[in-house]
Amino acid sequence: MFLRTNHFKLIFLFLALTITACGGGGGGSTTPTATVSEGKFIDSAVEGMTYTSGAQSGLTDATGLFSYETGKTVTFSIGDIVIGTVSGTAIVTPVQLIANATDQTNTVVTNIVQFLMTIDDDHDPSNGIKITQAIRDAAVGLTIDFTLADFDTNSNVSSVVDTLTTASTLGNQVLVTNAAAQTHLGDSLFSLLTGTYAGTFAGSDTGTWTITIATNGTISGTGSSATGASLVFSGSIVTSGSITASSSGGSSSGSTWSGTINIATGGVSGNWSLSGTGLTGTYTGSKK
């Protein structure tokens, strides 16, 4: 009897040690906490749009602010109407929602902007676009295909717009025009690009540069090469972020500069060259 009792004790001790070693009792590995970042949805700033990214969800605020899990996508919707899905980033515009779109002239981008402007509660996008709870509630059970070629005349689109705008403060509205939508988003994109940028250039000549982009897309700036020469930049940018400029001064005087500004990150990159000389190089920088 004594031997049997000790035998059972040894078995229980072995089991206890085994369970502890294997992380029994819930003390095992833990799920890493997701990193959360913030971004803004800009058409003009869109308030009251639902966003979902991993475990993050909520409504964009008056500045268009939303949260997203870093490295994951974020989906924007109004009721059951999905506006679009995109990788989370600091700035999202309707352009970023559509693969291969570069600016406000993309048809699907235009359709999205028309829709958002039309259901703005006070129908005045100059002070931001506000989606109210009443509009979100009215959008439950509804869908829209923003890729439709006949978006402006499609009966389902017209029906949804009628339903949602009837729930707005100003009441029933018709879909805003393509031209109005493109002009509005174009102004918003220029506003996001406006500012001061700085960086360095390398290649056949090296140095630093600083440019300022005005609200009309014109570029002006200065630079300094390693030779001590001063540079003067002039040019323009379009709403896609594409840069066309030239410089005077230094060994790269008369060179042409082309590149792109990433509207979401403010990063700048491109190439420069001086025709007929073989002088070439690259440049990089960021928004200050």
Treating each run of at least 4 consecutive H or I residues as one helix, how many helices? 6
Terminal Cα span = 83 Å
Structural class: alpha+beta
- How many domain regions? 2
Identify the overall geometry: elongated
- Beta-strand residue percentage: 25-35%
Radius of gyration: 28 Å
**Series of H and E elements:** HEEEEEEEEHHEHHHEEEEEEEE
Q: Mind describing the biggest β-sheet?
A: 8 strands, antiparallel, barrel
Helical content class: 10-25%
Quick check: average pLDDT?
90
Task: Write down the oligomeric state.
Answer: single chain
Give the number of DSSP strands.
Answer: 17
Stretches where pLDDT falls below 50 for ≥5 residues? Answer: 1-27
Q: Largest sheet, order of strands side by side?
A: 10-11-12-13-14-15-16-17
Q: Which labels suit this protein?
A:
2 domains; single chain; 4-stranded antiparallel sheet; alpha+beta; 17 strands; 288 residues
